[in-house]
Amino acid sequence: MLVETKSGKVIAGACKYTNSKIKKSVLTDLKDKCTKAKIDVDMFVLFSKKGYTSELKSLKGDTLKLFTLKNFNF
Question: What is the DSSP string of the chain?
Fold first, then answer.
């Protein structure tokens, strides 16, 4: 997914609904796709059913947001 906010920031995201934790390679693939498409991204957002590896969690910050099902009230 790709979103441009009212303030002009570009957010790129991906969603993985699998029974395993998302690895850093998912973020790398998303960044590569944006680079190839010549899209300047301000923030990356990942959504996961089962969570994230510790390596990916360590990258979380202002330019990377990580969400799981627990972040949403259903």
Answer: -EEE-TTS-EEEEEEE--SSPBPHHHHHHHHHHHHHTT---SEEEEEESS-B-HHHHTT-BTTEEEEEGGGS--
